[in-house]
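Progress note, sequence design subtask.
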């Protein structure tokens, strides 16, 4: 589903909203919001989207299926099928809204949590799981979907995105680049360097920070003394804070920032103010460092629930739609489970390939040592396994 609509940034019109969900501009001037936690449509003086009911249902479908995939991956890790998983629970609106703002020729540089953006770019969800199962280094071709492989090193992808964007500008293309990172990564030197280079070279890049308020166990107040979006001012480009649980606002703000980049006006920092409702990864226990009451307060701002309420109140979706989507969700979950368990183990000797273009004596020596070590095990007929077989 590609969301096509009028320009995201335009003057507010007093006659724009009608019906039961009409509202006034939001009270918080620092936070761009178009859909309240109660599912009420509100206006903003600078940002707007005009979507059809079909497009709104498409955004809801994206978020529901992304959450289901994420839940299946978490369950698979608990069952021992994955070594690790980084959940996006609670951040669906930030990822789907920004992901659907992209054009096909734009390029994405993710972290390791952008499962919703990958969905928007057409990456098969099962391809995201190979790395977490330990059978590959990433199961997709980045250039097929203009979606780079997941980056584990915190903040480094912002430099990659900036360099790529500088190249795009030199090529004379009108496409844009987007880099995703978290509030914790905003403290990394790589991010500061990418801000400097992108500003000085007017690179067509959008820095999309998902501020889920916890850098593992460190709260945002341990990362910064000012709102994160204000950091952009010191580098000479605009920053904006958007309600990261509002898929409509995330779509509008990201689309505006991308269009600005395409016009040659340089970078933008978007801070999506959201919340990580789950653990940092499946090896983390958030009950050790945050209160249950905090999560409960944010559950009331659930991005999926608020859009569902809006769809129901406006008559844009009926029970048949939600039932059909639930069936589709079950089908996706089953496909993910079956695909993970069917993933073949990699050839053990493949670890020595693609290290040096022309080979290397030390790698050759290590390969021979490892092969000898593998050969020292009992064969399968002896109750063990031969070299390169089994786990």
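Output:
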């Amino acid at each position: 589903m590609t969301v096509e609509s009028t320009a995201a940034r335009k003057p507010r019109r007093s006659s724009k909203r009608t019906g039961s969900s009409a509202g006034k501009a939001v009270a918080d001037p620092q936070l761009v919001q178009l859909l309240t936690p109660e599912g009420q449509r509100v206006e903003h003086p600078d940002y707007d989207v005009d979507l059809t009911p079909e497009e709104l249902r498409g955004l809801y479908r994206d978020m529901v299926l992304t959450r289901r995939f994420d839940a299946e991956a978490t369950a698979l890790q608990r069952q021992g099928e994955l070594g690790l998983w980084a959940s996006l629970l609670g951040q669906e609106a930030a990822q789907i809204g920004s992901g659907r703002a992209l054009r096909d020729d734009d390029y994405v540089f993710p972290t390791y949590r952008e499962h919703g953006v990958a969905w928007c770019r057409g990456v098969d969800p099962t391809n995201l799981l190979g790395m977490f199962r330990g059978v590959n280094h990433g199961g997709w071709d980045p250039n097929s979907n203009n979606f780079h492989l997941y980056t584990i090193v915190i903040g480094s992808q912002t430099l990659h995105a900036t360099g790529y964007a500088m190249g795009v500008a030199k090529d004379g293309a009108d496409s844009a680049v987007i880099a995703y990172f978290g509030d914790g990564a905003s403290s990394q030197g790589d991010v500061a360097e990418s801000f400097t280079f992108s500003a000085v070279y007017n690179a067509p890049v959008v820095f999309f920070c998902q501020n889920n308020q916890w850098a593992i166990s460190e709260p945002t107040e341990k990362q910064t003394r000012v709102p994160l979006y204000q950091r952009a001012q010191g580098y000479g480009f605009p920053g904006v804070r958007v309600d990261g649980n509002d898929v409509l606002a995330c779509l509008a703000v990201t689309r505006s920032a991308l269009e600005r980049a395409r016009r040659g006006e340089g970078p933008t920092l978007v801070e999506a103010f959201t919340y990580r409702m789950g653990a940092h990864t499946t090896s983390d226990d958030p009950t050790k460092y945050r209160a249950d009451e905090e999560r409960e307060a944010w559950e009331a701002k659930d991005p999926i629930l608020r859009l569902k309420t809006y769809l129901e109140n406006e008559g844009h979706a009926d029970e048949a739609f939600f039932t059909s989507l639930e069936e589709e969700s079950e089908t996706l979950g089953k496909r993910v489970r079956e695909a993970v368990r069917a993933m073949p183990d990699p050839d053990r000797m493949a670890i020595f390939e693609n290290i040096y273009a022309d080979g290397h004596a030390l790698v050759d020596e290590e390969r021979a040592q490892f092969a000898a070590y593998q050969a020292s095990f009992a064969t399968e007929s002896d109750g063990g396994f031969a070299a390169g077989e089994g786990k």
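Residues 53-78 form the longest helix (26 residues). Work on this subtask will continue into the next period as scheduled.
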